[in-house]
Design brief:
Length: about 180
């Protein structure tokens, strides 16, 4: 097996992505990565992140790539979690990732990084992400309450949140909606 076969085997399991750090752990040098990029076998997405050129794309690729570009510990956050699951009719301009540490690298314009402490990410299809219920709560004020309530119902139907979580979210949205109505009177 050649070094490129090792890279391909690793990358196929990770949305076609391989990082320079993963390659180094496999005994592959940066010179080899640069050679494969120049020959068209790999595509450089950003600092230390590469994608196989012959890879069949999936709808989750942009989320996996955003986490890889932001570095270790990064996870999908906020409205991007809703977008990832097809909830609440959101379509953010950039994929939002949260990082537990200060981010010093430059990210492409389609990735937005936020500091996030106190959130424990979960894995969805191998991609670290904020819990769906937490994402819905975080989006209050950013997304219309009616869409968030529908998103909570849809998330429950898809098995992404539990019934108590759904009831709590809908109650929060209805309370906020009732408060707005009282203020207008």
């Amino acid at each position: 097996m050649t070094h490129f076969d090792d890279i391909a085997a690793q990358a196929i399991d990770d949305y076609g992505l391989i990082t320079a750090a993963q390659a180094r752990r496999m005994g592959i040098t940066d010179v080899e990565l640069n050679r494969w990029t120049a020959s068209g076998k790999l595509e450089r997405l950003g600092r230390g992140v590469y994608r196989l050129s012959l890879y069949v794309p999936t709808p989750l690729d942009k989320f996996a790539a955003a986490c890889a570009l932001a570095g270790p510990g990064a996870f999908i956050f906020g409205d991007s979690v809703l977008d990832m699951h097809g909830l609440a009719f959101v379509n953010p301009r950039a994929v939002t990732v949260a990082t537990p540490k200060r981010l010093r690298r430059t990210l492409p314009s389609w990735v937005r990084a936020l500091p996030a402490k106190g959130y424990a990410p979960v894995l969805f299809e191998g991609i670290p992400t904020q819990k769906v219920a937490d994402a819905i709560l975080w989006c209050r004020g950013l997304v219309m309450d009616e869409r968030l309530m529908q998103g909570a119902d849809d998330a429950f139907a898809k098995g992404l949140i539990t019934e108590p979580e759904r009831d709590f979210l809908i109650e929060k949205m209805e309370c906020r909606h009732a408060d707005k109505a009282e203020q207008q009177e």
